[in-house]
Amino acid sequence: MDSEGGFITFLSKTGETLILGVLWIVTSLGIITIGSSWASMYYAIVKSVRKGRGYPVKEFFSSFKRTFGKGATMSIVLAMIVFAIVMLCRAAVSMQSTQGNFLLRTYFALGAAVAAIVIYLFPVLSRFTMSIGEMVRLAFIMCFRYIYFTVIILGGTAGIIYMYLTFLPLITLLVIPAAWFFVCTLMIEKVLRHYMPKPDETNKDEWYYK
Description:
Blueprint: H1 2-27, H2 34-50, H3 56-95, H4 98-127, H5 132-145, H6 147-166, H7 176-193
Helix pairs in contact: 1-2, 1-7, 2-3, 2-4, 2-7, 3-4, 4-5, 4-6, 6-7
């Protein structure tokens, strides 16, 4: 009976994660919605799928509405940074010289650093109430202080992107990214908890302390 109940729970959580994955993809299609979409995906997976609080879809859109303002600003700035890095990489490649190769490696390193910060930036947006500058600063600290998680997440994400560019069919976008997102929350949540204030009598039963 216990194993049957565990299997049903597994199927339920898998289904919820996949539904959230679809919402995440759809709501990420608009450039200014990417930040809120990622933050809401993280929020709903941790709160509803992992902690069993609330309904996943409802929690997703609740977070989406709450984080949209700051998320839109972050998304636009991030899009500009990515565009600039891509243009710089193209310029470096066109140089076809030793200097160009050096610049290309430098821009790749810069892109990796930006990606490392982004890993934590949107989860921070989903959890904390602070200015955008404070969020970026906190995400920057997290990505280097917990470099082992950062490397695992960056490496896994890069591997998935490579597989999609080489052989994975697009239909698996409905499954693999959401599953990997769930795995990433297991690591990122350990990081966020180190920066949360100690619980007191008024909030000790909140889901994020469980």
